[in-house]
Amino acid sequence: MSLISPWLASGSMQSEQLLFTVLIQLLVIMTAARIFGSLFRALRQPIVVGEIAAGLILGPSCFGYFFPETSAAIFDPAVSDVFGVLSQLGLILLLFVVGLEFDFSHLKVHGRSAVAISLTGILLPFGMGALLGLAMHSHLEPVASGEPASRPGFILFMGVAMSITAIPILGRLMIELNITRTKIGAITISAAAVDDACGWILLATISSVVQSRFQVWLTLQMVAQTVAFFLLVLLVLRPLLKRFVRRSLERGAGDLGMNSLAVIYGVLFLCALVTSMIGIFAIFGAFMLGTVLSDEPQFRDVMIRHLRNFLTVIFLPIFFTYTGLRTNLGTLDSPLQWMLFAAVLVCAVAGKLGGCGIAAWWSGFSPRESLCIGTMMNTRALMELIVINVGRDLGVLPDSVFCMLVLMALATTVMTTPMLLRFMQNTELEPFINDSGFLRPGGS
Fold it and tell me: Which pLDDT value is given to residue 219?
């Protein structure tokens, strides 16, 4: 029974009743995020991994499965749209902070490496995923509609699913490990950003193929609009904003006043709006804006001070829980399905970690540095969940494969930190991670 059903008036939820339910959900979400974040932190996993686990545990696969009535009462479906919007808003703000946090001056020397890593991180996993999809298709059960999964649609979606790197999760993990201003960190996040932008374009294109609406001109138009917008931000908006923030910081004695913050947030949301209209998702507009202002250290410090704690405590746990509530892991109930899952996991790790690691090594990085880059590029997490939900909604991914890809996304995220801590020795990352306090009990 819904917590707010006794208060419903004329079939509609009034604002106070809506607020009541949202506040209860926020209390549950923040408490679970803090508990699981601390638990996973004690296991030397980033807090973000614990928050992802909290979201999935609160969802239908665990809490909703064992306590369906209580789950339905707390997470009332009537307010799901509210949390969907809040979760996306949190991602927009996070990607702005991620862009601000990174030092891209290294790319003047190592830009070719980022491009090589990025291209390898798209092409090799896509090809391996498509071949795996071709081999798996004959073993699939029907999709939700009761019809067989589309052979070309399934193959193409398997390729995209293997190509994604979870840039929001990777960015936050790197911030927590204190490696955002390193050469390896800058190159990795740059390659991941290009990977994801190309991945979303691939996703949009393949969705059109599945729906029999593929038009080459529309895809080329999307790419051209993205490039044009980035050039506009870089060449026009950047110099204007740099002058604005410097003057604002001078007037505010090193801080930003309310009017200045309103302008910054207004521009941020405008950039997010433009990329959303283009079709590559709002978060990329926020990331673009952050990157072009990342060489303003005083501005960066002020904005991070204003945003980081609020993002960490409220917005990101909302995103993780909202995703968990939409994700039902189900079960893999046959040996064949578990063998196929093992093949999915091996293919995912070999394509991303192996492919990007080899590309980094060819670009001049040491073997350990290359393994660090490949390990970070292998992080998939919740961006992967978004992609596979699209595939299920389009009717090309049956439930068993959906579960395999969810488990693969979680596994590749959980393995990132222990592998990175092992490979970091004698690289530039080692002193930064040691200084972060991450390796100290109770550090953060």
Answer: 67
Place of tokens 């393994």: 371
CATH of domain 92-435: 1.20.1530.20
Residue range 376-419, pLDDT digits in tens: 999 887 678 777 877 877 788 887 888 888 889 888 988 998 89
Asked if residues 286 and 93 have their Cβ atoms less than 8 Å apart, the reply is: yes
Provide the whole-model pTM: 0.72
DSSP letter, residue 142: P
Contact residues for 117 (Cβ-Cβ < 8 A; gap 6+) = 187, 188, 191, 356, 359, 360, 363, 373, 377
Residue boundaries of the structural domains of the chain:
5-67, 92-435
Token couple for 55: 């979201």
Q: Which two tokens stand for residue 280?
A: 């590559």
Greatest pairwise CA separation for the chain in angstroms = 68
Alpha carbon distances (Å) from 326 to 24, 59, 124, 139:
19, 7, 30, 26
Higher pLDDT, residue 235 or 170: 235
d(CA 11, CA 369): 59
Report which of residues 136 and 139 the model is more confident about.
136
Q: What does the alpha-carbon distance between residue 91 and residue 290 come to, in Å, rounded to a whole number?
A: 13
- List for the chain the helix, strand, coil content (%; round to 5): 80, 0, 20
Q: What are the angstrom distances between the C-alpha of 228 and each of 35, 199, 287, 320? A: 44, 19, 16, 32
Name the token pair of 53. 């686990």
Hey, what are 387's tokens? Answer: 């992609």
